[in-house]
Amino acid sequence: MSTDTTVQPPAPGKKLNRIGLEPLAYRGGKTTLCAGCGHNAITERIIESFFELGIDPTQVIKLSGIGCSSKAPAYFLSSAHGFNSVHGRMPSVATGAVVANRTMIAVGVSGDGDTGAIGIGQFVHLMRRNLPIVYIIEDNGCYGLTKGQFSPTADLGSTLKTGVVNDLPPIDACALAIELGASFVARSFSGDPKQLKAILKAAISHRGTAMIDVISPCVTFNDHEGSTKSYSYVKDHDEPLADVSFVPFFEQVTAEYDPGATIAVTLHNGSKIVLRKMAEDYQPTDKMSALRLLHETMSRGEYATGILYIEPDKQDFIDLLGITDEPLATLPEAKTRPGKAVLDEIMDTFQ
Amino acid sequence: MSVTASAVQETIPQARTARVVNDFAIQVATVNGSGSQTANLVLLRAIFQMGVPVSGKNMFPSNIAGLPTWYTIRASSKGYIGRKKEVDFLVAMNPETAREDVLTLPRGAAAVYDEPLKLKDLRSDVVFYPVPFDKLITPITHDAKLRRLVRNMIYDGVLAKLLSIDMAQMERALRKQLGKKEKAIALNLSALTAGYEYAEATLPKLDPFVIEPMNKTHGMILLEGNAAAAIGCMMAGVTFVSWYPITPSSSLCESLIDYLKKYRKDPETGKATYAVIQAEDEIAALGMVIGASWVGARAMTSTSGPGISLMAEFAGLGYYTEVPAVIFDIQRVGPSTGLPTRTAQQDILSAAVLSHGDTKHPLLLPSSVSECYSMAMDAFDLAERLQTPVFVMSDLDLGMNTWMSYPLEYPKKPIDRGKRLDEATLERIGEFARYRDVDGDGIPYRTVPGDGMPAYFARGSGHNETAQYSERADDYANNLDRLARKFETARTLVPKPEIDLVRGARIGVIAYGTTHWAIVESRDQLKAEHGLDLSYLRLRAFPFTPEVFDFIDRCDRVYLVEQNRDAQMLSLLQMECTPAQFAKLGSIRHYIGLPIDGRSVTTELLKHEEEERAR
Ligand SMILES: Cc1ncc(C[n+]2csc(CCOP(=O)(O)OP(=O)(O)O)c2C)c(N)n1
Ligand code: SF4
């Protein structure tokens, strides 16, 4: 599988990836979330994705807001720096970090309350900037950490455990992200490991904002009858748009595919996403059809999952800023403090 | 001007007959958006070029066009550059305020006014000079828009004649102000000359005010505090800026953007060695700064009171995650529509403890444009050395007004990036623990993503020495105690106060920021008029250094003078005083939206002293 010949032969029984690391190197602290929480499943997929892509975990930064979901970065990639920031404000911290060190791969984890309520403003502006980051919303339609209140992604008419009915329409983070300029927008389900992992790998390999809304049931507060974010409801209403497979740049595309029924997208690093269509009018490179599909499935009470929209060549925020290739964070004094002649020149203008 | 200054009654000076040379204030009353700024700055600069100490203060409304604006130029042979309350020479261009502007003039003042305003019968104790601006501007240009813009140059010409300001200096100042715009220069010059010639032909000199050449501004420059701070940030090696526009802070980031564009391109690649992001609000601005700083950039933001309020939660996060941040607060009156374009020192308390929980932040307190510059550099070094947010508390008066200064000096010290863990240090200390006090100064070692050193997980106050999540009582308390130790280290690193202990003086004054300029003048007044000597300490930072307490010990009584209602700095000081020191402290406050003036301090201090004697 690996094309990297410098890799040490694996010790018997141990699986190593293309940079010679074992899966353990991608794990984090022990989870403190409830057993069965969707967020834990997402953490597992993140670990597998980074392992399988053979990315050096010390080249990753993990960021989050506040919530059960936002605790997740502590549970993967322990050798990566992490920042559990404040409620709803992960996007700004991530923006500063990514701009200050453009060589890092950034993963942001948020909740539907963290993003959809208190953090909607920062979410909007991160999407608009097309900041290179994998932005994951672990979406359970409620506030887990504060014990089960509705969040802004709760569907109209869904109920709390106490029977309280949600009488406001939901915010669709995917539709918003597409509208705002994110260049990779997907929806997935924590209960669909295969699809989620393929999407995560594609997102990590994409350049620009990769926003994934992962429906992630809260087993403690929102997994009952009447909830539209319960395991059983989502299983019944999951409408995959395509079968997603991801072929990293270091692997060959082997399978034959029918160009009529398949869409292949090549990413900036040469990796390929192969999408075997399941929905007829699925056109993930077209903004209008992506939005139409979302609205139509939503009005049927279904979750269209898969890569909803992708624009692989869109200029990202780093390009736009025109900054040095060397990270701003490590520029030496010689490059950041102008010489005396500059100060003299400026002083002359005030004479 | 419709504002009465402070609680202090003004005494109207006697009608003057003797010549008043280089010691008076000119006030131009216009409508904002009328393009008077060029004319005002030309006047200011010409006086400055004649060697006469001068200061300019703009009092403007929160509005783009159509509301009254007053620009005051003070010439002072003694070099006083604080505000002076009395206006000696008025230029009344605004029909809406002209009456009141004239009625509030002291006896013996002079007023140039737009002839149709018919002001001269309002007072018999003021000298009036009517000028037909519209008639004079007609032959200069046919373009109505240009007429409106250069019309103001006419009063510059009139004043040049009446006050004997050298026309050659006026022209030089005009060229300086307009740069290479030859057409505009020509047009303005004809308006200037028209005014001069009109005054020469029609207006006999009846007032006592004149400008005569001196040599007191030699080698000096004129600039605004925000420009100086921007230069300081660039020289401090800033690599990341995030900001949200707000008066009176915007011009800091806007000047910084201009300087960075010009001087901070990588010579080899032409790419920027910095990033500037206009954030969606001040919460995001500080969030971005913290993110950038966390990965190792030299990061800053600039704002004013309303932004400070929004930054509260992140300021606390910066304090507990121990991430550096430089935050400029160009203070103004607030909140929202509460005189947003007027000056104040009203954010002292809120900035010092910004956020929830036990938080304390170092504050730097610049008084002058040169300190806006040097403290910008200090702030970056301190923020990285102490791994904490540091606030630079400027104000509208300092940030946006034009001040005289000696040229800013090239930094003597190299940039300080603080305690970064490297191979050698790791070897020496044995093991990395992000929040361990290895050196006994409360400052731990820090690593950043991509530096090849061990990673850590940054989060709020719930962590132990090794940055692991912890809710243990001892972990929490130990961390808080170490942070308190770190604050004690800050006390040894922040700029020390400037102290002038006068032998035999029993009374002391403490002030900070722009209040300084009023103190300089008030001390001279008290000495000259009442034979009263005052010792003086100018605070330059919070936390307070031992010199401050020593100063209080050496005085019988100490007045802390500041520009807010609630004696905010005094409250901070009282928290750290002994009972004996506490008992000596008095307060003088000034909170009218206008810069504090020396006379108000003098009057108020004498009143307090009288009460003291009566007791
Ligand atoms: C400023 C602020 N307000 C409120 C809270 C309390 N709070 C903590 S987590 C949370 C909601 C989290 O919900 P969500 O983002 O959906 O994450 P989940 O716990 O469901 O994964 C709230 C309101 C807070 N931490 N900060
Ligand atoms: S409360 Fe809900 S969201 Fe939080 S950990 Fe438990 S299951 Fe997950």
Taken together, the total number of domains of chain A comes to: 2
Report the helical percentage of chain A.
25-40%
The H-level CATH homologous superfamily of the largest domain in chain B, spelled out, is Pyruvate-ferredoxin oxidoreductase, PFOR, domain III
Give the CATH H-level superfamily of the largest domain in chain A: Thiamin diphosphate (ThDP)-binding fold, Pyr/PP domains
Our count of helices of chain A gives: 12
Considering DSSP H and I runs of 4 or more, what fraction of the residues of chain B is helical? 25-40%
- Give me the secondary-structure category of chain A: alpha/beta
Task: Based on the coordinates given, report the CATH architecture of the largest domain in chain A.
Answer: 3-Layer(aba) Sandwich
Q: What is the second-level CATH architecture of the largest domain in chain B?
A: 3-Layer(aba) Sandwich
- Sheet with most strands: strand arrangement of chain B: 11-10-12-13-15-14-21
- Average pLDDT over all residues of chain A: 94
Q: Could you list the spans of chain A in which at least 5 consecutive residues all have pLDDT below 50?
A: 1-7
Reported for the largest beta sheet of chain B, the result is: 7 strands, mixed
Looking at CATH, which topology of the largest domain in chain B would you report? Pyruvate-ferredoxin Oxidoreductase, domain 3
> What is the β-strand count of chain A?
13
Protein structure class of chain B: alpha/beta
**Major sheet strand order of chain A:** 2-1-3-4-8-7-13-9
